[in-house]
Amino acid sequence: MADQTPEFEGHEADAAPSAEPPAPAARRIRRDPASGAIATVVSVLATIVGLILLAWLVLFVTKGRFLKHTFERIASSQMQREVRVAGDFQFYFNIINLKFLAEGLTVSNPRWASKRNFFASQLIDTQVATIPWIFGTRRINWLDLDKGAIDLEWDAQGRRNTWTFGDPNAPGKPLDLPVIRRAAITGTTLRYRDPKMQLNADVGFETIRARNTAFAGDIRFSGRGSLRDRAFTLNGGLLSPNETLAGGRNRMTLHAEAGPTVMDVSGTLPGATELEGADLRVAVRGPNIARLFDFLGVATPDTRAYRITSQLTKAGEEWRFTRMQGRFGDSDLAGRMTISMPADRLKIDADLNSRVVDIVDIGPFIGYDPNRIAAQGAAGAIEQVNGTPRLLPDAPLRIESIRGFDAHVDYAVRTIRGRNIPISNVGLTLDLDRSLLKLSPLTFDMAGGHLTSDISINARVRPVVTEYDVRLATTPMGRLLAGWGVEESGTSGTLRARVQMRGLGDTVRESLATSNGRIAIVIPAGSFWTRNIQLSELDVGLFIQKMFEGKLKEPVQINCGLIAFTVRDGIATADPILIDTRKNVMLGRGGFSFRDESLHLGFRADSKRFSLFAGQSPVGVNGYFAKPGFDVISPELLARAGIGLGLLAAVAPPAAILAFVDPGDAKAAACGPVLAGARASAMRDTKGRARDDVGREGERIRGN
Questions:
Q1: Which of 24, 60, 73, 371 suits 233 as a labelling partner, its CA being 20 to 30 A distant?
Q2: Distance between first and last Cα of the chain
Q3: What is d(CA 442, CA 456) in angstroms, rounded to the nearest whole number?
């Protein structure tokens, strides 16, 4: 046992180490999932960058020439036009910016266009700023264009154009050029056609090369064209392209002539094709400003010779003409104007003012020829039609022209220069909204009174509908009629008036010749003093008596008066004419015609007191607006004279006088209905009885 124990123990000693845990092996590495993802992304990005660099390198080495047919196919598909490159082709990134070169590049036009290609060139070589283009700023750093031909054309309806790519039936968009920082252009032409505006233009461009290492010199252009069958020429240039390259501004000039209309533009541009923020000065002159606005398809009234200067800049869709100064005829003009095209529709917004406007220069606004009026005076407004004089203007509203634009114009005039009627402080607000033209309000001060009017011309319908509402506030007659011999001193009488009519037609003459409505002039109590006042009262006997007594200048005391007409189909009938004075009651019948401008009026005065030599016969007003006639010796007066002569022969001289005696039984008027401007049917005498001696509503006169 003793011998075995040590052996046993020895074995245990040997076994003990084996019972201990084995030595640890190398520990297993645990990877972080995030780190793995980052590594994957980095690997992918590195691969992409590598591929991009490889593609860039391939493109840079090959100049992208192998993409020629791919470019033609994709460009043709996107534009829905045939795009072809006849010669060399390059398309690659020159470091960062995109380099494009094509020899014999052509881009076809849509089938409706009159020319085969929209664009063709012998060579186009350009570099495009890539990063700005990605963020929406289309910028071309430089452009070489040799023997280019560009065709800009609208279709006959003005709906489609050649520079709107994609669907050939899509509405045309405005021309939006990229910013070109510098350019060299040789032998290049631009063709523009707009059948709707009747505008054609052909312009050529040529760069005058500079010496040494400068990029290029002036870019000159010149051309010709026609607008509504009126030829024009233009020329100009970009004078400092190297300043633009260095961060400066490009000086630009333009001179254009269309017959006697001349326009000069000078100033600076931010870039060769960059008009945004341009600082330009415009000077234009000519015989008629309407011809100038024809370039925009905008209808304006004719004017006499004009000259206008202004500053011009472009901001977004707006062309802003500011600090305008100039003259038209013998009138001055200043203010500002903005021309824009929101929603593809031209809009004019203007705030204009004049210190003095000559009354001759107002003629075109209602259809008169200002040059004729300036040369002939009032006679220049009269036309002879079939041997009869016509005064109302017959110039048609340019309906087709006003359909193409909208406008809002505020116009203020301090003084109207005229001979007889003092007019000042004119205020006009003009609104044109899709062929609905409103002059509302049109206001001015006149001879101490104030006129307010609202005129609406609706050209949305045919025939054109015109509505007139003119209101004259209380106005001193002495100042109003001073030019016709009325003495201001001693004339305290006033008048107020209103005209409400509605007519059809696109000229002033037509709208009045078909009009319906009412005209009323109310005369409150006051005195009226003029050399021929007794003729106005139409008491011929009293006039002669006073003439021999030397008492012509004696004021007439007016109690109340109303001169009113009802207008139906262009025929105005007295409704009523009634003026009550201290001594007489003046009555009128008949009327006038807007159709042929004829006058058929008769006046008589019934004395309120005994008058020995009162003829008591109507005095007629006949003829035409442009040439009125007065018939003082009327048939009634001649008949009474015959009776007098018969009595003279049969009895005795005193008996002949009886035929001219006025017993003085005129009915004094109740002034309430008169001052209210009521119709004839509402007229009463001072005892409240209906009058049977005034023109009745519905009484008509002859008219063509």
A1: 371
A2: 165
A3: 11
